[in-house]
Amino acid sequence: MAASPKDDLHSRLVVWLKITLPLIALAILATLFLFSNRIGGEGELPYAKVDVEELARQQRVTAPEFLGTTMDGAAISLRARSARPAQGTEQAAMDQLAANYLGQDGTSVELRAEEGRMTLDGEAVMLDKGVEMTTSAGYRLTAQDLTALTTRTEVSTANPVTAEAPFGTIEAGAMTFSPDPVRPETYVLVFKKGVRMLYQPGP
To answer: Residues 101-112: pLDDT tens digits?
Structure first.
């Protein structure tokens, strides 16, 4: 049965559209790229190019984030403003660190530091400057440095630490926060090496 003139016109129209529509789309894209190259010009931010070159040169990663779960079941998160390879070490140097542990029993620990380092295997984070640690039990600690593990819930320092507790202040030569050996589902904060406590009774 011969095709009618109407069907023949429809078929030719479909073929023509299949060819012309992609060409029109390409033309639109080309126009967009052309104008996008012109946008900015002298009005570009003067530091944009410098930042890009610096990032490429220093291999810096902006706003890195680490999320995971420790072997004892605590959720852990780690964020930083930036990270970059630490020269001469197999570590990543980071600044403006913020880490958080959330245990299965609801216990939480927040860590903050101006600077720090993370091992390339991601199993340990060393907080070096402006270190603070806050617990959900009401303790606020300041220390020269802290080491936080990501494979298990453990935060420790072998250097002096000062803590503001709900009942007063504590000074010690070392500190460890980890699961209780007797009740692993809970956590204990242990002060060691010449512990001094100033008890301040409440009203």
So the answer is: 999 899 999 999
